[in-house]
From TrEMBL:
UniProt source species: Rhizobium leucaenae
Chain ranges of the GGDEF domain: 379-509
Name of the protein: Diguanylate cyclase (GGDEF)-like protein/PAS domain S-box-containing protein
Alphabetical UniProt keywords: Membrane, Transmembrane, Transmembrane helix
Cited CDD domains: EAL, GGDEF, HAMP, PAS
């Protein structure tokens, strides 16, 4: 088998001899033998071509059975008595023969290389050699011819022998050395070289082989180095690396992964990675590939991972979608601290830092969850919207620290009255909300409202008294979703505030009408400010003795283009709630002073005064400067302007408000206490504040001549007492709402200074009032004119 090349050379030479010598013998013997010999050889050549092609694939696959079957089919063909198939490497040598043992004749053979056309080109795999009985060519030859043929055969054999020797020396020996080098490389794994040097083709072949071996040796060294570096990188990189096969079984893990998780490599290799994930995260992990897009280069999923020592880590897994050699690379990062930080941030984001309750954002999330729970459990959900009454007084008079302490104390008391499952939240400022899930949510809500009322029985922060207005709405009775439920409980709370505060109010649909009217009025206010619908009407204040005009009170009016004059009391209430009263008040003050400047130019009006009503919200630090600038612009003396304030301003005793009032007084303006007697009236206000004028409310004026004698007597006594004490404290007294001559006469007898009401003059637009005052003096002194 190791001399296959030599055998092929021998076969080629023998074949050449047969091709050239046999025809001469046939020619000498008989012409018919030539044709028979030619047919036999042609037939054998066709069989060789066909069988060489048929043997190429089996010989490439070293399929001995198929080679044996094809050889048996070949030897069954007529003239062929023996077939030999050999491959180049010598691993396969198949012989089929039909020669009987008694046969002593000669056999002729023909060999053909077996060529396989593969992807890399044509490859010589081996040789097929066929044998057939030789014809008796020498039969009948003469002795001379036999001598001639013998000499010819001797010469041919000499040449043949010389060729074989030369072939062995110059071809076979270097090929054998090359073969041994290849075999040694294959078996031992080392790169052996061929020790052969010559200038012919064999020398160049050996040199090329040696160069190839050297190059492969270098490449193997570099490959081993690269593999070692890659392994070191995989194991020594401070990251938890692991590889999965196509079925998510662990194919490899890094040393750092093992150190971080506590597992041994033998425990995890070949194990499903999902088995190391907690059941609560397992489905999320197994579904990671279904949710990714086809174009995604990587997958990422965060799951809970179970370590060897039963520790649980939150891990972020980044996995490449590209699979090489059947495995994918993944990196696992411990994000436990990050998740805990996110949870803390979430709690902080939804928790009120002062009270520890949920804030508005957290409450809205809890409200959605509670509505879902109510749907599942077929129950009702009550939402209580709680707004504290007079909490601003604590902040203004006791400081914000005291206000914060009161809120914390309130929450502590309120939480003691909640049961598990109830949710409380601080929506902002002094607004709270409570969610109650119950079968009878209305009853539970009013019970809770009563419990909350108990919270306010004890003072806060020592002596601060508070109360709460509570609005109640129930899902799904009043609302279909979370936003609507919160809105309607808010509407119910405002309805309770308007009805007198301090209590609970269940939502009903009539409140929506009030809310719509309120929203419409808010729009009218904003439109009035932007389109200048507000006007300062003036109502004269007269000397109660001679009914001469002593001054004017500026009254706010909103003149809607379509609806006409809107009721001012409702506008003031809404404006104070929304804060727009400051802008309205400034607008009215500017217009009133401008109109008063025009009136002052009329005869007899140069010493009159202007009274302007101020909301508590208007007493800002910039108010004195604003008043001073307006009076300077219109050249009006400060003592001619009276700032009217209510008892509520003085009762709050806000230091900032006190400072503003003192600044106004130092500037020269006078202070009037409006609606005296309707609130927590106290003459101490006159002593503690720079009050110049006391205005007695019209409810007392109407009662002084009441049909019921006891009511009339008490009212007269109160009015006389207020007047006497006010005069003793150097305060002027004005009666409001005088509508009859009888009321005027009674008040005059009591010694009041001035009067104001429809008996004398109605509030009028400044232009109309100027026309009336510019006419004959009798026009505005007669009772008919005064009442017009």
């Amino acid at each position: 088998m190791s001399h296959s090349v030599e055998n092929r050379f021998f076969a080629i030479v023998c074949g050449a001899l047969l091709v050239f010598v046999a025809p001469l013998f046939v020619l000498f013997l008989f012409l018919s033998s030539e044709r028979a010999e030619k047919e036999i050889k042609d037939h054998i050549s066709v069989l060789l071509v066909a069988n060489a092609q048929a043997l190429a694939k089996p010989l490439w696959d070293l399929d001995e059975d198929s080679v044996t079957q094809i050889s048996a089919t070949t030897v069954a063909e007529g003239a062929i008595v023996k077939v030999n198939v050999r491959d180049v490497s010598g691993q396969l040598d198949v012989t089929q023969s039909t020669i009987p043992r008694s046969y002593k004749g000669l056999l002729e053979s023909i060999a053909r290389p077996i060529i396989y056309n593969g992807v890399d080109g044509a490859k010589n795999l081996g040789t097929i050699t066929v044998y057939y009985p030789a014809l008796g060519l020498f039969a009948g030859l003469k002795n001379e011819e036999i001598v001639f043929i013998s000499i010819f055969i001797f010469a041919v054999l000499t040449v043949f022998g010389a060729a074989l020797i030369g072939n062995r020396i110059f071809i076979i020996q270097p090929l054998m050395r090359l073969t041994h080098a290849v075999e040694a490389t294959r078996r031992l794994g080392s790169r052996h070289h061929v020790d052969w040097q010559s200038n012919d083709e064999m020398g160049r072949l050996a040199s090329s082989f040696n160069d190839m071996q050297s190059k492969l040796e270098r490449e193997e060294t570099e490959l081993k180095l690269a593999h070692r570096r890659a392994t070191d990188t995989y194991n020594l990189t401070p990251a938890m690396l692991f590889s999965l096969d196509r079925d998510d079984f662990i194919a490899a893990v890094s040393d750092y992964w093992l150190a971080a998780t506590g597992y041994a490599r033998s425990e995890v290799l070949g194990r499903k990675f999902a088995s190391l994930v907690l059941p609560e995260s397992r489905e999320k992990y197994t579904d990671r590939k279904r949710s990714r897009s086809d174009s995604a280069a990587r997958l990422d999923v965060t799951v809970k991972f179970l370590c060897r020592d039963d520790r649980i880590m939150d891990v972020l897994i980044l996995e490449t979608t590209a699979i090489q050699d059947g495995v994918s690379l993944s990196v696992m990062t411990d994000v436990t601290d990050l998740k805990q930080s996110e949870d803390r941030n979430l709690r902080q984001a939804i928790t009120d830092h002062l009270t520890g309750l949920l804030n508005r954002q957290g409450f809205e999330t809890a409200l959605d969850a509670k509505i879902n729970e109510a749907d599942l459990r077929k129950r009702e959900l009550a939402c209580l919207f709680v707004d504290l009454d007079r909490f601003k007084w604590i902040n203004d008079n006791m400081g914000h620290a005291a206000g914060d302490a009161a809120l914390r104390e309130l929450v502590s008391r309120m939480q003691a009255r909640l049961v598990p499952g109830d949710i409380a939240a601080r929506l902002g400022g002094d607004e709270f909300a409570i969610l109650l899930l119950a079968e009878d949510a209305e009853k539970r809500a009013f019970d809770m409202a009563a419990r909350i009322a108990e919270v306010f029985e004890m003072p806060f922060g020592g002596d601060a008294r508070l109360s709460a207005s509570i609005g109640i709405a129930i899902y799904p009775r009043h609302a279909a979703n979370a936003a609507e439920l919160l809105l309607k409980s808010d509407i119910a709370m405002y309805a309770k505030k308007r009805d007198g505060k301090n209590g609970a109010q269940m939502f009903d649909n009539s409140m929506l009408d009030d809310s719509r009217r309120r929203a419409e009025l808010e729009n009218h206010i904003e439109s009035g400010l932007s389109d200048d619908w507000f006007e300062a009407y003036l109502q004269p204040i007269v000397n109660i003795d001679d009914r001469s005009i002593a001054g004017f009170e500026a009254l706010m009016r909103l003149h809607h283009p379509q609806k006409g004059i809107l009721p001012p009391a409702r506008i003031i209430d809404v404006a104070e709630e929304t804060g727009s009263i400051v802008r309205i008040g400034n607008r009215i003050m500017e217009k009133a002073i401008s109109h008063f400047a025009r009136l002052s130019r009329l005869d007899g009006m140069e010493n009159t005064y202007l009274a302007i009503n101020f909301s508590p919200l208007q007493f800002e630090s910039g108010l004195p400067m604003r008043i001073a600038a307006l009076l300077s612009r219109h050249d009006i003396r400060p003592e001619r302007v009276v700032v009217e304030i209510t008892e509520a301003v003085l009762m709050d005793d806000n230091p900032e408000t006190r400072t503003v009032i003192n600044e106004i007084c130092r500037f020269g303006c006078r202070i009037a206490l409006d609606d005296f007697g309707t609130g927590y009236s106290s003459l101490s206000y006159i002593n503690r504040f720079p009050v110049d004028i006391i205005k007695i409310d019209q409810s007392f004026v109407r009662a002084i001549n009441d049909i019921a004698s006891d009511v009339s007597a008490k009212s007269r006594m109160l009015v006389e007492s207020i007047t006497t004490l006010s005069h003793k404290m150097n305060c002027t007294v004005i009666a409001e709402g005088i509508e009859t001559e009888e009321e005027c006469a009674t008040l005059r007898a009591m010694g009041l200074d001035y009067g104001q009401g429809y008996l004398f003059h109605r509030p009028q637009h400044p232009n109309d009032l100027m026309k009336a005052l510019a006419g004959p003096r009798a026009d505005y002194l007669t009772p008919v004119a005064q009442a017009s």
